[in-house]
Specification:
This protein has 2 domains: 223 residues, 3-Layer(aba) Sandwich (Rossmann fold); 39 residues, no CATH class. The chain contains 11 helices and 7 strands. By secondary structure, the protein is α/β, with parallel strands linked by helices. Helix 4 packs parallel to helix 6. Strands 3-2-1-4-5-6-7 form a 7-stranded parallel β-sheet, with helices on both faces. 46% of the residues are buried.
Length: 284
């Protein structure tokens, strides 16, 4: 399908490398943070983007700015996700990319005091929401004969203990397992399924966690990024950004760049979960 350049602002076309030219993408949780950065990156690379979120004002404004569409979607509700996929197919005739990005932080604190109702809500969004997305994206891709790309947002908390709450870590590790099993089935249809695991990206979720940890209301994203760069990255002074994750999502969505990559968890952590920098003195 040839891209309709009237759907993308002139400025974005000028910046585009067209890695996703003409592709149709649905991004859940696309109204802000990592999702919003990915919406912009996909549009800059020629994709038609449908934002699915519960933040209606933010989502609709962003969709209008990139010539995309917005739909209200609570991913914990299977019918909402089904409707979002149907909307994308009705809009452009196909679905090429599904980015299951929506998620919540959920309850923190000791496992001995954890509120199970809060856990069930978190799992309904972080795990069932991803399952809904994979299910209906796969159905649309198979029906349309599309060898598409399904991407799911996991976390470094699924790799290393102590980086997230118990419930959040549980949900993100579950996503990685689901990605592997879905890749096994859907690979027969040429559909790739991969996950992204960001670390220390100063999203609203992480900034709020730092505010609670420090007991300060005036913590700014730059402070969180600086802290991660100094303490949570082998690339000293370099923390992760939403744009880093967005570019990784473009890579996973691109047939030209990652056409032989599936069942993979792409970790964006500055090497933090693979090595310990505090022992670096032994090499000097």
């Amino acid at each position: 399908m040839e891209p309709d350049m009237h759907d993308v602002p002139e400025l974005l076309i000028g910046l585009s490398s067209e890695r996703l030219a003409g592709k149709v993408a649905v991004i859940t949780g696309g109204a802000r943070g990592i999702g919003a950065a990915t919406v912009k990156a996909f549009a800059q690379n020629g994709a038609h983007v449908l934002i699915a979120d519960v933040l209606d004002d933010l989502g609709a404004t962003l969709a209008n700015s990139i010539g995309g569409h917005y739909i209200h979607c609570d991913v914990s509700k299977e019918s909402d996700v089904e409707s979002a996929i149907e909307h994308a197919v009705t809009w452009k005739g196909q679905l090429d990319i599904m980015f299951n990005n929506a998620g919540v932080a959920g309850p923190g604190g000791s496992i001995t005091r954890i509120n199970m109702d809060d856990v069930k809500h978190l799992l309904s969004v972080n795990v069932l929401g991803v399952l809904h997305g994979i299910k209906y994206a796969a159905k649309a891709m198979i029906k349309g004969g599309i060898k598409g790309s399904i991407i799911c947002t996991s976390s470094s908390a699924a790799i290393m203990g102590g980086l997230g709450s118990h419930a959040y870590s549980l949900s993100k590790e579950a996503i990685n397992g689901l990605v592997r099993t879905a890749a096994c089935e859907l690979g027969v249809h040429g559909i790739r399924v991969n996950s992204l695991s960001p670390h220390g990206v100063p999203s609203e979720m992480l900034v709020n966690a730092y505010r609670e940890y420090l007991g300060k209301e005036d913590v700014r994203p730059e402070e969180v990024s600086r802290y991660v760069g100094e303490n949570g990255s082998l690339l000293r002074g370099r923390g992760g950004t939403a744009e880093d994750v967005a570019e990784a999502a473009v890579f996973l969505a691109s047939d030209r760049q990652s056409g032989f990559l599936t069942a993979h968890n792409l970790v964006l952590d500055g090497g933090f979960t693979s090595a310990i920098s505090s022992m670096g003195f032994i090499y000097r």
